[in-house]
Structures are given as structure tokens and as C-alpha cells.
Design brief:
One of its GO terms (molecular function) is methyltransferase activity. Pfam families: Methyltransf_25. It contains ten helices and nine strands. A seven-stranded mixed β-sheet has the order 3-2-1-4-5-9-6, with helices on both faces. Strands 7-8 form a two-stranded antiparallel ribbon. Helix 1 packs across helix 8 and helix 2 packs parallel to helix 3. The longest helix is centred in the middle third of the chain and has 14 residues. It starts with 19 loop residues before the first helix and ends with a strand.
Length: about 290
Amino acid sequence: MTPTLVRHHRYADSSAPVDTGTRARDWAEIQERMLAPLYEAVYARLEVGAGTRMLSLGCGSGLALLIAASRGARVTGVDTDRDRLALARERLAAEPGQDTGRAGPRARLAESVPAAAPDGEAPYNLLTAFQPIGCTAGDSEGLAPALASAMPLAVRGATVVLAGWGPPERCATAPVLRVAARLTESARAPRSGSGWRPALRDDLEEVAARAGLKPDGSGRVSCPFGYADVDSAVRGLLSTGLFDTAIRATDRTQVEKEVAEAMHPHLRPDGTVWMPNVFRYLVCVT
């Protein structure tokens, strides 16, 4: 899917309130596609297809659902971000021109974990949590409870996939993300929340252990972050939420300026930005 890049955005005006709709669209049009290699690698390994009934936790604007549905899977997506969920409904509409308030016949969306699989369908046999953890202190704390509430909806022995950032030395974006920690610490704002931290080797395994899951393999996937220009890169990265703490501790304008400066080592002669990264995934069974 080719992203639509908009040159001017409301984040640039630090006096304006955050436009959550614009932010969600920045995620959908710029940033989410960076994780497509991760989705594809997992689906290929698990042979996702017509027999797959997938429940995706934190489905965002639905790209992972769309790719799974294109392979024949029946998918259900859950996300608390209403703006991203609205974009997912648009993507998963059954036919162009139809009511986009509903997903297609092989997909459904919800703001919370459903009480059961769709009527007349078997329980889920694949649970995914593709939102990468291991980059913000405490970013995994809500995942184990979410998995615990979802697992009763799955068949016994269902597959669960967790995703996270790879080692900082394998992620060119890590020094850019470190800006968030530096700005938060320099502002000395303890109430502003927990900032960025380096990914740890056992982040995914610790979540699996807390959720009572049994690891059954893992993998690493190259997910380079490529942008048309620095402006698009800043918008894409801010849409992840990883800089929210820094923005609260300082202001949006300062964060955008310093993130843009941190991009310089990755700026190509043609003005594009390219940052190679590695992400991890852990395959578990219930």
C-alpha cells in the first residue's frame, strides 16, 4: 500500500492541541507499513490461510489484519484507539464504495476483547500482539492481562505471537528514540511517565511467562524504516507514541526539532531517510 505523504501537519504548531485523527492517519499512511515484513514473516512461518481464525490485540489501523485476510484468514481486531480503529474499518471494508462502518465478511473490529468468537465460528487458533514492546519502560505491563482475557476465547494449544524491538545495536532508529529519554530526563518531570529504554533480550519471554504461555520458537526480521523526507520521518515516529512522554515533559516543537536533527546520519543525498532495524517475534502455545 503506497502511503499518502502530507507535507504540512498540525504537530508543528505546539500551541495547537494534538489532532488524534491526524496522528492516527500518520500512523496508517507512514509508519505502520514499516512493520509489514514482520507480519509477512510470521504469517509465512505459521502458514496463515483459510483455516486461520486470528484475534489481533492492538490491531491499530488494520494492516496486519488486511494481510492475514488476503491470505484467507478470518480476522478479529481489537484496539482502544478509536481513530486507528476507524481507519481499520475503512481498510477492511468488503467492497469499494460500501459502508465503511463495518469490516468485510472475513473481519470484525472491536474496542475491547470480545466475549466470544463470532456466532457460528470456531474459537480462535491464533492470537497476535504485533505492537512492538521493549522500547518504553512499562510498555509490556498491560499485555499479559490482555492475553489472559483473550486466551479463553482460543482453542487449546492455540498459537500466540508476541513482537518486540530487536537489540539496540541492530536498530538504527535506537539513537533517534533515545532523544525521548534525554528530553524527559533533562526536564526532570517524574510525573510525565516512563520514557524510552533500550530493548532487553528477554522482554518477550518475560511477558510470555507472566501470561502462562510456553515459548515455541522465535525469529528476527529486518524492518527498515524508510521515509520520503525528514518531515515524514518525524511525523511517522511521533505517531508511534514513543515520544509522548518527552512531549509532555517539554513541548512538541522541541521534540520535533531534536528528532529531525537525530535523523541527519540517516539522510540520503536525495533527501530520503533510511534506518535499518531488526525486530523480534516470539511464537508461543497456550
